[in-house]
Amino acid sequence: MATSTASRANLKNYVLVTLAYWGFTITDGALRMLVLLYFNNIGYTPLQIAFLFLFYEIFGVVTNFLGGWIGSQLGLKVTLYSGIGLQVFALVMLSLLNPNWAQWFAVLYVMVAQAFSGIAKDLTKMSSKSAIRLVVPQDAQSSLFKWVAVLTGSKNALKGVGFFVGSALLASVGFVNSLLIMAGGLFLLMFSGLMLPKGMGKIKAKVKFTQLFSKSREINILSAARFFLFGSRDVWFVVGLPVFLRSVLNWSFYEVGGFLACWVIGYGVIQFLAPTLIQRFGSNHPPQAKTIQFWTFTLTVVPAAIALALQLGAPPNTVIVGGLILFGIVFAFNSAVHSYLVLAFTDDDKVALNVGFYYMANSGGRLIGTVLSGLVYQLFGLVGCLWTSMFFVLAAGLVSLKLPDPQPTKAIAWKGGDGD
Description:
Elements: H1 2-41, H2 46-52, H3 54-74, H4 76-95, H5 103-135, H6 144-172, H7 175-189, H8 217-237, H9 240-248, H10 253-281, H11 289-311, H12 316-344, H13 351-400
């Protein structure tokens, strides 16, 4: 009876955390598309647009570094709903942007608002992914890999929905009204936090500052690979690709937002299916070091092939659509295995600290990718962004060669064959 009650409580907590993360994710995707398309439409250069997201990524790095410590001391409930509250504040702040301000001041204002949004995103992400490690017992019938894939895959699908929502809102009700609508929806979602336990993820021991740096060789290697992996995506996806679609191929707001939305949704579906597919082709064993090495080196080929096709004069619409689909499929397998391995290498009492450190590396990769996306696109176009992406993936693959296999005691909650 006690086990059944605990299982129901864990399921309730998982559902609440997932719903909060879903709601946040829609607004996060919508906000990115709103800012990018709105400022591109009023004449900002690719590099100026990249700088609008600079504080978003910088403060994401800082938040992931300190967020794990905050979560371990105050509990993941505090960090999760603090993140959602900060996002509401950022949306309202952006709605007060005055088009008559000097451009330098407007850019600075948006950067500060985006800083709050970056803190919000990474507090929410760190909290939700750490919470899964706590609500899935080590002897659970369903695998940790699958539970992580459900959250991560559905999150990315909903981020794609957010891309479309942002584009559609911008075209229909304008920039300011879009921001206020999203802020109101998130504010209502915050009340779901009343049903979560207060001490989730909180530890009694004091954590020294030096302990914020991961001492696990596995986590350090995986974090370095994650840095280059996500830098490889954002170096062409964040600024270069949407600006190319809008400015060079003359796609409309709806077409740009709809296409990127479909891509992210498909990417999320592949992440969701990754455990089943890897199970089927991996003899029902959990992912090992060679799994991530295979998918990373496979990904290296994709941006290089897209760049070569564009340089050889292939139809850009066909190349971009087909190439991005292939990139999304292979990248999704990489991301799903990464999300499993970071938890497989982590003990219960260090989950918030290790996940925070790991996603700090993730944010660092996004930061350098975002800046380079605007800079390289402005200097060398989309082809330059794609070649840079290829070198980043190659670096991730070389780093992953040093990764050991998870130990049997840590490769938790993986059950093969029965579809649980």
